[in-house]
Task: inverse folding
C-alpha cells in the first residue's frame, strides 16, 4: 500500500500524545490505517496500554465478564459517571475512531486530578469490547452483552473468519464463556454515560465548530446475502450453461445505489464479498456479500431491505441460483434525550449559548446504552469527514477542544 496510507496511519500521533503512544499498534501495512480486532495481538496490546495508562493515573482497572475494561476513580458504586469508547477498529481503519474517546477521557481525568478535583460520585473510563464487530460480525458486542441486547448463547456461537467461536476466543483471553451475558448490577451502577468520538462526517466543518453534541444515530443493520450456484470450470463451462452466484451477487450489488436513493436519506453498502472456493479459474459455488443498510427510521431501513431482498431474488432466479439473507446485527434508531443533552451541553457552552447537536450516521456504544441510561455524545471535528479509512483525522487544536469540553462535563457532573 502506498506510503500515503502509512503517513495517514501515523497522523493520529501528531494530534494527541496519548494517540502517539499507540500509533504503532495494529498498523495494517496491506490495507493502510489500523486493523485492531477483539483479542488479537493489537487489541491485547491496546488493552495492556489502557490498563497501564489508567493505573498511572491512580485509577483501578477491572475487566468485566464480557471483556469490557473499566478504569475507576473511586470505589465503583451507584450513580457513577462513565465516559469512554472503544479501542478496536474496522479493517484498515483510522487512528481516531474509538481511541480518541478513550485517550480524551484519560487526559480529562488526569487534568481534573492534577487540579485537585474530588468527584462527589464514582467516575469510570470504559473501553467497550468489539464495538466495530469486525471479528464476530455484531456491532457493539461488549455493550450489547452488558445490557442484554445480545443473547449470550448467540454470542458464544458466533464465529470469526477462521471459524473460531467467540466462546473459544473468550476462553483463550482468560474469560469464562459461560459467564458472558447481561450484567444488571454493573449497568445499574451507571448514572450517566458520555462518549467522546471523532465526527464521522462533515457537520462540524460546515458549522465551523470544533465540538458538538449528538442528536441521534441512524438505525442500522448488517445482513449476509448468500448466493448458491454450481461450482464449475472457468474454461470448460459455456456461458449459456452456468449457474454463477458471482453474477447474481454482482447484479444485486449494482442495483443497491438506486434502491437506496429511492429511500430518502438511507445508506446501503456492500464492503465485503467472499467467494467459495475462490479460485481464479473456478466458477464459485457460493458467494457471500454483506449488506450494511441504514436509514432515519427503522421502517425506512426495513423498506430498503425488502427492496434489496427482492432484487437479490430476481438476480438469483435469472442465474439459476438460490439466495438466502441472514440478519447478523440490528441497531434501532437512537434519539438522545433532550434533557440529558441540555444538561451536558450546559457544562460546555458559554452562558446563554447552546452547543450544536448533530445526527450521526455512525453507530456507537452510547447508542446501545441510551436505551438504559441517560447518555450523550460529544463529537470532535474531522476536517476530512472521512472515517473507517486511514484519512480519518482531527487536528491537535480540535482534540484539545474536545478534551477541554469533556473535562468541563466531568467536573460539572461530578
Ligand atoms: O458501523 C458503525 O456505524 C460504527 O462505526 N461501528
Ligand atoms: Mn467505527
Ligand atoms: Mn466508533
Result:
Amino acid at each position: 500500500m502506498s506510503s500515503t496510507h502509512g503517513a495517514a496511519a501515523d497522523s493520529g500521533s501528531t494530534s494527541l500524545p496519548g494517540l502517539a503512544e499507540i500509533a504503532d499498534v495494529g498498523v495494517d501495512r496491506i490495507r493502510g490505517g489500523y486493523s485492531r480486532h477483539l483479542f488479537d495481538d493489537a487489541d491485547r496490546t491496546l488493552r495492556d496500554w489502557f490498563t497501564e495508562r489508567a493505573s498511572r493515573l491512580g485509577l483501578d482497572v477491572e475487566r468485566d465478564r464480557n471483556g469490557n475494561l473499566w478504569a475507576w476513580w473511586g470505589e465503583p458504586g451507584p450513580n457513577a459517571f462513565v465516559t469512554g469508547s472503544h479501542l478496536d477498529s474496522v479493517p484498515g481503519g483510522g487512528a481516531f475512531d474509538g481511541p480518541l474517546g478513550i485517550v480524551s477521557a484519560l487526559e480529562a481525568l488526569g487534568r481534573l486530578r492534577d487540579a485537585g478535583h474530588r468527584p462527589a460520585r464514582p467516575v469510570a473510563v470504559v473501553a467497550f469490547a468489539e464495538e466495530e464487530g469486525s471479528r464476530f460480525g455484531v456491532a457493539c458486542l461488549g455493550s450489547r452483552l452488558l445490557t442484554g441486547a445480545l443473547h449470550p448463547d448467540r454470542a458464544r456461537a458466533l464465529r470469526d473468519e477462521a471459524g473460531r467461536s467467540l466462546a473459544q476466543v473468550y476462553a483463550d483471553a482468560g474469560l469464562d464463556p459461560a459467564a458472558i451475558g447481561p450484567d444488571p448490577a454493573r449497568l445499574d451502577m451507571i448514572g450517566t454515560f458520555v462518549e467522546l468520538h471523532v465526527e464521522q462526517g462533515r457537520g462540524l466543518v460546515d458549522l465551523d465548530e470544533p465540538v458538538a453534541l449528538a442528536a441521534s444515530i441512524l438505525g442500522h443493520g448488517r445482513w449476509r446475502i448468500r448466493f448458491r450456484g454450481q461450482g464449475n470450470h472457468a474454461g470448460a463451462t459455456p456461458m449459456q450453461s452456468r449457474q454463477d452466484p458471482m453474477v447474481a451477487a454482482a447484479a444485486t450489488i449494482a442495483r443497491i445505489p438506486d434502491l437506496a436513493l429511492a429511500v430518502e436519506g438511507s445508506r446501503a453498502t456492500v464492503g465485503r464479498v467472499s467467494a467459495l472456493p475462490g479460485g481464479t479459474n473456478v466458477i464459485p459455488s457460493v458467494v457471500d456479500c454483506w449488506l450494511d443498510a441504514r436509514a432515519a427510521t427503522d421502517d425506512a431501513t426495513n423498506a430498503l431491505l425488502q427492496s434489496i431482498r427482492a432484487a437479490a431474488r430476481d438476480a438469483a432466479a435469472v442465474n439459476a441460483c438460490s439466495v438466502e439473507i441472514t440478519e447478523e446485527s440490528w441497531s434501532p434508531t437512537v434519539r438522545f434525550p433532550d434533557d440529558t443533552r441540555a444538561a451536558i451541553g450546559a457544562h460546555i457552552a458559554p452562558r446563554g449559548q447552546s452547543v450544536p447537536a448533530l445526527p450521526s450516521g455512525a453507530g456507537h456504544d452510547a447508542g446501545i446504552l441510551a436505551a438504559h441510561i441517560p447518555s450523550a455524545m460529544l463529537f470532535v471535528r474531522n476536517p476530512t469527514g472521512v472515517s473507517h479509512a486511514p484519512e480519518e483525522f482531527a487536528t491537535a487544536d480540535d482534540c484539545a477542544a474536545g478534551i477541554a469540553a469533556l473535562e468541563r462535563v466531568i467536573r460539572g457532573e461530578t
